[in-house]
Design brief:
This protein has about 210 residues and is an alpha+beta fold. It folds into 3 domains: about 60 residues, OB fold (Dihydrolipoamide Acetyltransferase, E2P); about 60 residues, Orthogonal Bundle (DNA polymerase, domain 1); about 45 residues, Helicase, Ruva Protein, domain 3. Helix content is about 45%, strand content about 20%. Strands 3-2-1-4-5 form a 5-stranded antiparallel β-sheet. The longest helix is centred in the C-terminal third of the chain and has 15 residues. It starts with a strand and ends with a helix.
């Protein structure tokens, strides 16, 4: 199974890219967010989810191990295939997706192309209260100096969210309640809110329960 590719971007197209690795061109499927960060002729490092069937081997590419992990996890929900999972991650980055799940916000998930109301509600209910997936070997991978690392996408405040939720759990709150309160705090304060601000706002939310 291919888990990561490092090479030169040979071509990009509608929902696909070709990565040249030592003279071998690997064609992978990717969402618009991933494709927007790939420049033909430049070096790239892409996390890969490999899916095999009787008729084909398909590679799906992502900028981070977290995105790759969520792509695989989303397909655990009944009715969610690769296309729907890719569409969801095109409109919601992992922290935003976790917020939508924690808040039961199916409307945000439904913004994804091809995802209807029932499927969006199924995604929210399927993963509510469950821990996020861990990126495959994510802690073992560090940026390679010779390969340009994509700049963080606006709104990717995952570390502050995670740390704030952990702090609340350490104070004795249930994980699901902590995640929901932090998610609402992010909605109220904005994506760039600090950990301290999120904890303070989340505690106010929890005091109302």
């Amino acid at each position: 199974m291919i888990g990561r590719l490092r090479g030169r971007v040979a071509a990009t197209g509608d929902g696909q890219a070709m990565i040249d690795v030592n003279g071998v061109g690997y064609v992978l499927h990717a969402g618009s967010k991933t494709l927007s960060r790939l420049s033909v002729g430049q070096e790239a490092e892409i996390f890969i989810e490999t899916q095999m069937s009787e008729n084909a081997i398909k590679l799906y590419g992502f900028n981070t191990a977290e995105e790759r992990a969520w792509f695989a996890r989303l397909q655990d929900a009944p009715g969610v295939g690769a296309k729907a999972a890719m569409s969801i991650l095109d409109v919601l980055n992992p922290p935003q997706l976790m917020d939508a799940i924690a808040l039961g916000d199916a409307a945000s998930v439904q913004r994804a192309h091809g995802v209807g109301k029932k499927l969006a509600e199924r995604v929210v209910s399927e993963f509510k209260g469950k821990p996020p997936p861990a990126g495959l070997f994510a802690e073992s991978f560090t940026p390679t100096d010779s390969v340009a690392t994509p700049a963080p996408e606006a709104g990717e405040g995952g570390a502050s969210r995670s740390d704030a939720a952990s702090a609340l759990v350490n104070l004795g709150y249930q994980p699901a309640d902590a995640q929901r309160a932090v998610a609402q705090a992010v909605r109220d304060l904005g994506e760039d809110a600090t950990e301290g601000a999120l904890i303070k706002a989340a505690l106010k939310q929890l005091s109302r329960i």
